[in-house]
Amino acid sequence: MKRLFDAAFTLALLSLLAAGGRADEPAAGKSPTKTKKVEANDLTLNVPESWKQKRETREPRIAEFEVPASGDDKKTGEFAVFYFGKQGAGGVAANIERWVGQLDKEGRKVKIVSGEAAAGKYTLVDLTGAYNKSVGPPVAKKTQRLAGWRVINVVIETESGPYFLKLDGPEKTIAAVENDFRAAFGGKKESEKEVKQE
């Protein structure tokens, strides 16, 4: 009787694992995301084909994409790559402080992790809440308040200097493309380590 129970339990467990699949495999019936290679100076990205690249960018933006809305979201998301030269634009800690400060303190959620990609070490700052997004030239200091927003900032420390990646949009839209975003720069969620905010 025990042998029969053990066999049934093992079979049930194997069926459950097979149905769930591995975390890095596409869900059953879902095709892997088709990507296109994009060169952003010395940084090579593999972004989803559905992300529409904007032809015109202004420095320090070196690449910019529109991310399609997901679910019942009416607004699209945006993915931008910034490069300020080898010297960068302030240290990692200073940028984290600035990024966190762009969201209203009330209701804000912050998660900071670090990891390794082929291009170098990266720090990822995942923010959710009411985002005060910069509109127009930075010197104008104009912002637009966007409630229910999610912003993922990444700084990758490469041999050519730091590259800054920003993905922002409505929460559902960003949740739908979070894995594609990480894959674009070679991030690996399973090996990331949490960084305590000072």
Explain this structure to me?
By secondary structure, this protein is of the alpha+beta class. The protein has a single domain, classed as Protein Transport Mog1p, Chain A (3-Layer(aba) Sandwich), CATH 3.40.1000. It contains 3 helices and 10 strands; from the N terminus they run αβββββαββββαβ. The protein has an 8-stranded antiparallel β-sheet with strand order 3-4-5-9-8-7-6-10, sandwiched between helices. Strands 1-2 form a two-stranded antiparallel ribbon. The longest helix is centred in the first third of the chain and has 19 residues, at 2-20. The N and C termini lie far apart (58 Å). 25% of the residues are buried.
Layout of secondary structure:
Blueprint: H1 2-20, E1 35-40, E2 43-48, E3 52-53, E4 61-67, E5 77-83, H2 92-101, E6 109-117, E7 120-135, E8 142-158, E9 161-170, H3 171-185, E10 193-194
Antiparallel strand pairs: 1-2, 3-4, 4-5, 5-9, 6-7, 6-10, 7-8, 8-9
Adjacency order of strands in the biggest sheet: 3-4-5-9-8-7-6-10
- Please give the domain count: 1
Please write the string of helix (H) and strand (E) elements: HEEEEEHEEEEHE
Number of strands: 10
What kind of sheet is the major sheet? 8 strands, antiparallel
By secondary-structure content and strand pairing, the structural class works out as alpha+beta
**CA gyration radius, whole angstroms:** 20 Å
By CATH, the topology is Protein Transport Mog1p, Chain A
Give the % helix: 10-25%
Low-pLDDT segments, ≥5 res: 1-29
The amount of beta strand, in percent, is 35-45%
Distance between the termini: 58 Å
The tally of helices reads 3
CATH superfamily: Mog1/PsbP, alpha/beta/alpha sandwich
Provide the CATH top-level class: Alpha Beta
CATH architecture: 3-Layer(aba) Sandwich
Shape: globular
What is the residue-averaged pLDDT? 85
